[in-house]
Design a protein that fits this description.
This protein has about 325 residues and is of the alpha+beta class. It has 2 domains: about 200 residues, 3-Layer(aba) Sandwich (Rossmann fold), CATH 3.40.50.170; about 100 residues, Formyl transferase, C-terminal domain (Methionyl-tRNA Fmet Formyltransferase, Chain A, domain 2, Roll), CATH 3.10.25. About 25% of the residues lie in helices and about 25% in strands. Strand 12 and strand 13 form a beta hairpin. Helix 1 packs parallel to helix 6 and helix 5 runs antiparallel to helix 7. The longest helix is centred in the middle third of the chain and has 24 residues.
């Protein structure tokens, strides 16, 4: 991409699909002199090396790409400083930037973060906003410092979370909202028109990196909490339980009752034409779609018939329960 007169010079740090809309907007607002993204990783059944979504988009836009394995080296900082960027935009890059990189652009680094800071600082704010039962979330444009999402906030935009919305669906909406926020506010930041508002660190909450065991269903929790866990962790790490000592992925559920304790948590209360209703620590949860280990996703009725699910049989949190 050839330079355009009077446009600011920018760097972009980002890796997954979520970051691509912001990259495209930045390419309209500035001369993006380099994109920095994570190295190619093995993916798919064949575990062949696959490029990050941001790399693919950058190549389509004709922007130079760098994929460093280490970012905390004097050589890398010197390379970026030599590019004489006015600003760097960081969106879901996946690494904490050291001070030398934060200070490389003339106006520092700004981050598009998918939460209403100081809520949900960390790697997975989209998923945890649903799992935590938040009614709304949003995006922030933040001036970066050395901490984990601790810098002052320049602008924010809130978004209501849909009652049945999954983590994947919410991520798409937030990525678009983040791009809109960047389009509106980055020019103002470059002109010095935005005031950075310090976060209230006492109100901070965490959105840690997702692990597979985060998807384990604890039937002693309420039906509402488990409903939020299933949709928040769809499709990764995925919610799962055990039936007859076999792992079962829970793909889709519905809350039948918010309150009441009708049986030992995990006990099947009723099998209907489209659901398996299960007792929770509070309330009742209907399982609608399930995926047994090594099998395809299937309706609850097909699972119930194949696994001989009846009232009084139980789903459990482990193979030994």
């Amino acid at each position: 991409m050839s330079p355009t007169p009077n446009k600011p010079r920018a760097l972009f740090f980002g890796t997954p699909d979520f970051a691509v809309p912001c990259l495209r907007v930045l390419a309209e607002l500035a001369d993006v002199v380099q994109v920095i993204t994570q190295p190619d990783r093995p993916a798919g059944r064949g575990m062949k090396l696959a490029p990050p979504a941001v790399k693919v988009a950058a190549q389509e836009l004709g922007i130079a790409v760098q994929q460093p394995t280490k970012v905390r080296t004097p050589e890398f900082a010197a390379q970026l400083t030599a590019l004489r960027a006015d600003v760097a935009v960081v969106v879901a890059y996946g690494r904490i930037l050291p001070p030398a990189l934060l200070n490389a652009p003339r106006l520092g680094c700004v981050n598009v973060h998918a939460s209403l800071l100081p809520k949900l600082r960390g790697a997975a704010p989209v998923q945890w906003s649903i799992v935590n039962g938040e009614p709304e979330t949003g995006v922030c444009l933040m001036q970066m410092d050395e901490g984990m999402d601790t810098g002052p906030v320049l602008a924010r935009e809130a978004l209501a979370i849909g009652a049945e919305e999954t983590g994947d669906e919410l991520a798409v909406r937030l990525s678009q909202l983040g791009a809109e926020l960047l389009r509106r506010e980055l020019p103002r930041y470059l002109r010095g028109e935005l005031s950075a508002v310090p976060q209230d660190h006492a109100r901070a909450t965490s959105a840690p990196v997702l692990r597979k065991d985060h998807g384990a269903i604890d039937w002693s929790k309420s039906a509402r909490q488990l409903h939020d866990l299933v949709r928040g962790f769809y499709s990764w790490p995925g919610a799962y339980t055990f039936f007859a000592e076999r792992r079962v992925k829970v793909q889709r559920v519905r809350v039948v009752a918010e309150d009441g304790v009708l049986a030992e948590p995990g006990t099947v209360l009723r099998v209907t034409a489209d659901a398996i209703e299960v007792a929770c620590g509070r309330g009742t949860l209907a399982l609608l779609e399930l995926q047994p280990e090594g099998r395809n996703r299937m309706p609850a009725a097909a699972f119930a018939a194949g696994q001989r699910v009846t009232t009084e049989t139980r789903f459990s949190g482990s193979t030994s329960a």
